[in-house]
Amino acid sequence: MSSSLIVFIGIACLFILLVKTKIHPSLLFASLLFLFFLLNYIKVEEMLNNFVNPSLVSLILLLILAQVINKTFLHDSLSRLLTKNKSLSPTIFRLGLLAGSLSAFINNTAVVASFLAPVKTNRRFPPSKLLIPLSYSAILGGTVTLIGTSTNLIVNSFVIAAGLPSLRIFDFIYIGIPLLLAGVLYLSLGAHRLLPAIKEKKAPPSRFFLEARVLPGSRHCGKTVQENNFRNLESLFLAEIIRHGKLISPVTPDEIIGEGDILVFVGEINRLKDIEKFHRIQVFEEENWKILEKNLVEAIISHNSTLIGKSIKEVNFRARFDAVAVAVKRGEQKLSGKIGSIKLQPGDSLVLAAGRDFGTKEDLKNHFYFINPLPLIKKLNTTQSFVAIGLFLGAIIGTTVGIIPLVKSLMIVLFLYFILGFLTLEEIKENLHFELIILIGSAIGIAEIMIRSGAAQQVAQVIMSIFNPLGTWGSLVGVFLLTQLMTLFITNNATAALSFPIGYTTALSLGVNPLPFIMAVAYGASGNFLTPYSYQTNLMVYGPGHYRFHHYLQTGLPLAVIYGIITCGLIPFFFPF
Fold it and tell me: Most exposed: 16, 432, 511, 568, by fewest CB within 10 Å?
């Protein structure tokens, strides 16, 4: 069996596993690279060098520095401008330009996360009219510069590995700016008419909790929660206790039950039979809303969270985060059944009853995006904010005018942030994103093997044969469409990794400049507007907006057509064959 056939089979299996399983892409890419290493398709020196690719290092540095930018007044100040207009269209236009402009220089995931709370809690417009436009605008803004989205930096990693000159920060503006402006115009003038107007109502605690009072003479008084078997209920979970008007949350197994305690259960709150079997514990309808409301937090599972694919009970949620999940929503659907058995997925919206130590947990931001604000991050004061933003902009300008390479300028800024106290060693360690390093480093090696083995050439020949009547431009469109198709099934980063060797080899086969095809891969992998699943910002707004799958399809399809026409029309003009 030829090496090209083996590589092709390996890539096909990788794609199927990416689509059909919940295994993290980094593990799948690393496993395939290791298999190719065992087959002697890549040398150990080549494999290791890919993990210190300058563009990959730049991406990690940018993700770390973004934590400091998030501490400045920038996001808070801009978010106040959201509802200044009384009309919806101007509001969406302003939101789109703000989010898009920020996303050109800051990771678009961080931008959407910072706007979630003000959009969700605004009283003028339904959040469902704003959140998908927010996500789409952030995606479009990410296409404006090299550093706007991880996809562009990943593509640049392949460019460097292929021995080509590195892409520059503003090489993307020629197509990115028209895409952003056209996209924001569409979103503000027409797209909002396709979105539902779902009124945001504050859910009362009675929707999440079942309250039961411990009556005098109950056999359960003086015993712990564990001794009373309150943790072994079929459909309910003891989350909190109200004692003398004070809230105990979350409840530990060794908490002693007292007379008059109000036991607060979560889960299937209409299943009263679990409570009726206990001695002198009575379900009642008294409303302790003010007490129960004060520690409710709404959080969204991050696409990078290690909780994904695991049940709430399996990750020992209460002990790990000092919080109890009282409800889980996936899009518009509130998940039923025993909460502890629900396996978490990226984009799930959790209503949490948080304990007093919840906000001090160090890894919260690695797992959650928060709707209602928490004192998780100590903000920089005005002077510090100006210094932080100035240093970051200085690094970008220095790189743009050719004074200093991007990776070196970002290293200098990181060092200065650390010296000035804007960034701690713990924050640096928390944002190293080892899984992303493994994914990209492995993907670069796999791309090299695809090109050397001839597997990429075989796919390129198919594309050229199909689009041959349209010439070189037709092959460019073919690469773009193939990339766009893959983004419907796998993540944008994985798509870029699989599409780059195909686009690059197609250009070599045609004997033309590879840069137009490289840009087609970059823009094709970044432009997913049709599903909530394969792009992280779409997932982030899925639950808070109470959306369904078809909302993305009907709103995103016209935008995808606009995006494709502009991209394929302008690439040959600015990047000639």
Answer: 511
442 pLDDT exceeds 70? yes
CB count in 10 Å sphere of residue 471: 12
- b/e per residue, 133-156, with b = 16+ CB within 10 A? bbbbbbbbbbbbbbbbbbbbbbbb
Measured CA to CA, the distance from residue 145 to residue 170 in angstroms comes to 5
Tokens of 427: 């924050």
Residue (of 574, 576, 577) closest to 175 by Cα position: 574
**Paired tokens of 542:** 């899925």
Q: Is the pLDDT of residue 289 over 70?
A: no
> Structurally, how many domains does the chain consist of?
1
Q: CATH number, domain at 220?
A: 3.30.70.1450
pLDDT confidence tier of residue 185, bands split at 50, 70 and 90:
very high
Residue 238 domain-assigned (yes or no): yes
Cβ-Cβ contacts under 8 Å for 153 (sequence gap 6 or more):
55, 56, 58, 59, 62, 146, 147
Note the pLDDT tens digit of each residue in 457-479: 878 888 888 877 778 898 899 99
Closest CA to 169 of 406, 356, 333: 406
Mean pLDDT, residues 117-130 taken together: 80
Using the 8-state DSSP alphabet, how is residue 165 labeled?
P
Q: Residue 16 phi/psi, 5° resolution? A: -60, -45
- The number of residues making up the chain comes to 577
Give the pLDDT score at 336.
65
Q: For 27-41, give one letter per residue: b (16+ CB within 10 A) or e.
A: ebbbebbeebbeeeb
Q: What pLDDT sits at residue 28?
A: 86
Task: State pLDDT tens for residues 310-322.
Answer: 888 787 777 787 7
Query: For residue 369, what pLDDT is reported?
Result: 77
Is residue 135 domain-resident? no
Q: Are strands 246-248 and 236-243 parallel, antiparallel or unpaired?
A: antiparallel
- The pLDDT tens digits for 519-560 are 999 999 988 888 887 678 888 888 788 888 888 888 999 999
Nearest residue to 260 (alpha-carbon basis) of 205, 218, 208: 218
Kindly state the tokens that stand for 210.
């079942």
Calpha distance 348→238 (Å, rounded): 22
Is omega for the bond preceding 25 within 30 degrees of 0, making it cis?
A: no
How far apart (Å, rounded) are the C-alpha atoms in residues 365 and 179?
A: 31
Listed residue (211, 216, 205, 217) closest to 284, CA to CA:
211
Decide if 220 is inside a domain.
yes
Answer whether residue 314 is part of any domain: no
Q: Give the model confidence (pLDDT) of 386-395 as tens digits.
A: 888 888 888 8
Domain range for 275 is 205-286
Q: Is 263 helix (H, G, I), strand (E, B) or coil?
A: strand
pLDDT tens, residue by residue, 375-411: 455 677 778 888 888 888 888 888 887 888 888 888 9
CB environment 217-235: b (16+ within 10 A), e (fewer) = ebebbeeebeebebeebeb
